[in-house]
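Dig into this one:

. . .
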Amino acid sequence: MARMLTVDDVEAGLVGGLLLSAGGSGRNAVDKNRGLGRMALDNGGVRLVALDELAPDATIITATAVGAPGFANWQIKPRDSINAARRLIEKLDKPPVGVICGHVPGFNAWLVAAALGLDYIDAASNGRGHPTVKMGGMGLASRLDLSITQVASSGSKAENSEFAIEVEGDIVRTSNVMRQAAVINGGLIYAARGPLTAGFIGENGAPGAITFQLDLGRAMLAASGADRVRATVEFLGGELLVDGEVTANSVTYGGGFDLGQMTVRGKNGEAVLGVYNEFMTADFAGKRVATFPDMIGTLDPLTGEVVSISESKPGSRVAVIIAHRSKFPVGKGALDPAVFPEVEKAMGVDMRSYL
């Protein structure tokens, strides 16, 4: 049943969403995301609507951001997300009824919904953080016969800083253009894409991703410190892989991505986490134990706060948790074989054989 989101939902969505960003965001993103959520509530409010409440042919757009979340030197503003969505809608033959996020936390999509009078749909392209538009493409990377429109926006004419790009075509080539737009914009840019139908998203996206995000956040907020780590593992049906010291973090920004490895050593052994914007692989004692789109995340074991990759400095202590992809909503794009080769090449690891 449709309902208006509240301030309590902002807090739950913040905590659950930061964890599900899979290392892309942490304490450094709390104020920004909380601000977006509250701004949306203060400017029209946000109505959360389930996919099955919509007609299968209802038009929906996606509000997202493209680029590297942690190590790049980017400057983006909330208005950019609204402007990107508005530019996209102007190009569509049929007005959208709602908006989904690319992946959670997704508060920029809250803002788009509030500003443009759209419903916020209880779904996402994917239920956890992913590094490429194609991985959030809901299988479109294998459908080069289908065309999609992608729009990115930044700055304003008044500030002599306006930068916008609109591109149409298959999701593979248009996504490459969007990545370059992010690089030009300092590493990250707000974007919108579409149109998609409710029926397509129901079959290929991650229905229920927002409810899952909120429920996870509530479970996490009900505990603190080490208890929050346990509560998170229990809710996800996952495991605490290691609680220990970050002994190495080689992740650096380049070419639109944060790339490298992070090593955590605890009493039970050593975990090596492969990073491509988000945590993509986890090896423990030389054995692969989690591979995207499995959930891999880090928490401060003392406070229970979500810790991002960029915040995990050598010498700091983190708790690494993992959960199988079957435990949360996952879009088909996250399992599309066509989206893995570029990531495997960049990281120098095998991923497809672990799907």
Notes: The radius of gyration is 19 Å. The CA atoms of residues 189 and 323 lie 29 Å apart. Residues 7-20 form the longest helix (14 residues).
